[in-house]
Specification:
By secondary structure, this protein is of the alpha/beta class. The chain has twelve helices and nine strands. Helix 5 packs antiparallel against helix 12, helix 6 runs antiparallel to helix 11 and helix 11 runs antiparallel to helix 12.
Length: 363
């Protein structure tokens, strides 16, 4: 019965996730380096699995751009898993070909049409895991290093346990991937919360994120990701927030209301690399060992590409004429002063003080 309820709630969550449109589009292409082999030219298409494999795993991201960090990660998973298993496990990689919306991938995972997928955490709030919105709290993490320390430590382990219990093991967090850090970009520079007063800002759909922007005096606005360029161009919204790679890929920085990028660094984002926990448990110990090694390797690859692309995408924005307000020139303490009460309230409402303390004590 519990699994049936989760399935019904998940269907509703798909609609919400599709409308939210947070980071569902591939970042721009990074330059390949010695440690990262470029994806194959036909990387958007899934290759046929080896005929003699005893197990085939289907893995997918929503990103159609072959050089998206997610896809570098999936390619690394395939490379390492097939090598470690000696070909006993074959991996079929889909890069946007199973669906360009994360909600589609989650549905495929639930149906058994995919085995591992990359997704934003938010859909879980609609299927009975309100605790997952801790990832949506602004100024939760101070840096990529702080983010990694928390996600690879006790906090990350605690969230794995919560998700496993609340979804009856339907979703197992295999690892945590990054989607970089989000900033505000608008028709004017933003150095303090007051600069956002009265501005309509396209935000993500999580209530805690909208509460933060309301506290800044902004007007949180919902616009589908695919329609945001036009909204910025025509003045439907005064600004938005996202990471450098996503906003530059969509050329938001070339619009009148996206030209001024302010490094508020309010959200070091988390993406989940998910598998059906029951399917994982059904693997042999040997297969689990191979998969765990491959997941560790592909996670390191995805993060490294993401961090490198921060600098490359920022430079692209500058070269294209965007006006950057550097992190050091922004009153971060004033923004944090608005974010902390929202964090505290969320922890109290969801019995998450222990997890919040894990993050704060990891600094």
């Amino acid at each position: 019965m519990k699994k049936k309820v989760i399935s019904m709630l998940l269907a509703s969550a798909m609609v919400i996730a599709t409308l939210a449109g947070c980071s569902t589009t591939a970042p721009g292409a990074p330059a390949a380096d010695a440690g990262s082999a470029a994806p194959a030219a036909d990387a958007g298409q899934a290759a046929a699995p080896a005929a003699d494999a005893e197990l085939t795993l289907i893995v997918a991201s929503n990103a159609t751009d072959a050089t998206n960090p997610y896809n570098y990660g999936l390619d690394k998973l395939k490379e390492v898993l097939e090598e470690k298993s000696g070909g006993k496990i074959a991996v079929t990689v889909h890069k946007g070909t199973l669906g360009e919306n994360e909600s589609e991938l989650v549905e495929k995972l639930q149906m058994g049409a995919a085995d591992l997928v990359v997704s934003s955490p938010g859909f879980m709030t609609a299927i009975g895991v309100p605790e997952i919105d801790i990832f949506s709290l602004e100024y939760l993490f101070d840096s990529f290093d702080h983010w990694e320390k928390c996600l690879d430590g006790d906090f990350g382990a605690a969230m794995r346990d919560i998700v496993k219990e609340k979804t009856n093991n339907q979703f197992r967090i295999m690892s945590y991937w990054s989607s970089s850090v989000r900033d505000v970009y608008a028709k004017q520079a933003v150095t303090k919360p007051e600069d956002l007063k009265g501005l309509s800002i396209r935000t993500q759909s999580a209530s805690v994120q909208q509460d933060f922007f309301k506290a800044c005096g902004a007007i949180p606005t919902t616009v589908a990701w695919g329609e945001l360029y036009q909204a910025l161009q025509q003045g439907v919204v005064d600004g938005a927030e996202n990471d450098y790679t996503n906003l530059t890929l969509k050329e938001h920085h070339k619009t009148p209301n996206g030209k001024y990028i302010s490094e508020t660094h309010h959200d070091f984002t988390t993406r989940l690399f998910l598998m059906d926990g029951n399917k994982y448990d059904a693997l042999t110990d040997e297969q689990k060992g191979w998969l765990n090694e491959a997941v560790e390797a592909c996670t390191a690859e995805e993060r490294a590409i993401t961090y490198r692309m921060f600098d490359e995408s920022k430079q692209k924005a500058i070269d294209d004429g965007a006006v950057i307000t550097e992190f050091k020139d922004i009153d971060i303490d004033a923004f944090k002063a608005l974010a902390i009460p929202i964090q505290d309230k969320f922890a109290a409402d969801n019995n998450m003080q222990e997890q919040l303390d894990m993050i704060r004590n990891a600094k």
